[in-house]
Input
Amino acid sequence: MTKNNKSVFFAVILLLVVSLMIFPFGCKKKEEASKPQAKAPFNIGFNEWVGFAPFFLAKEKGFFGDLQVETQFIAVEGDKRAGLYSGNLQMICETMDMLQANRDTLDYSGKVIFGIDESYGGDGVLASDKVKKLKDVKGKTVIGEPGSASYFILLYLLNKDGLGMKDINFLSANSSDAAAAFIARKVEVAGTYEPYLSTALKKRKGAHILVSSKDLPGLIVDVAIVSEDVLSKRNEDVKKIYAGWTKALEYFEKNPDESIAIMAKAFKMTPEEFKDTISGIRYFGSKQNLEYFGSENSPGKIFEIFGEIGTILKANNLTKEVEPANKKIDLSIIAAPK
Output
């Protein structure tokens, strides 16, 4: 082989090597580019309350389909709001009075799209034997957690009797500490929730439940809340969340033991503890949601309750602005076919 032939030969070999290096790499890049982008997760924030337990069941059983759902326990209301405003959370879950409290403007984020659970005896106001009826609370020291369901129950009923927070001496404490103070006889009246409610009743002689959420059906309801942006841009994902929620409740009804075991684990409870705690709540499936929300032509009870909540909060200087119910409640998700 001549010197010129050798040069040509090596040039061809070099060209082949370079081609093999470039083209597979180029094909790989093309394949990667053609792959669909992973969908952003759907983040849901709520406090550590067993009413939200079916979200964990839905996730465990795959009822959200291909949607990646992440749940976060968030105790502070301000942190939930901040997460919703910033877009770090796509949904938050809380009671309607929590949504409406402490608002300086009508223009606040959040649309109520479906009901989650109703407190049916799980929240209440404890009283000693010295306090026989609600009017006896006037002038008394009452301890409770601002923003909690029992706090709003007290507000609601005081308002019905023409009273308000100005007529009592209110002490702020979390619900467990409120129950402890009541047991220790430091106060005559305390607002709290299960399991503290039952524990306090057993530990203080003469104690009774002055009023509970069981006496006020439809008032203390946890709801799912999303921003208008999420409702618009991720509408199909929101529908998957609702479908997954209702499927979880259907599964729970047919497979109670397995479902309770899964949900209890998420809350670090034994199945027996979990079962006892949820005895004071009622979950909202598709049927209950349709009844409570109603339709555009026949609005349900939620519209009346939402309005009453706003009026009471404003009367007690717990919010500056009250948004009309039809501006904050969206019926599209519960009405959509599953």
About this structure: The radius of gyration is 27 Å. The longest helix spans residues 3-34. Residues 8-36 have pLDDT under 50 and may be disordered. The chain has 15 helices and eleven strands.
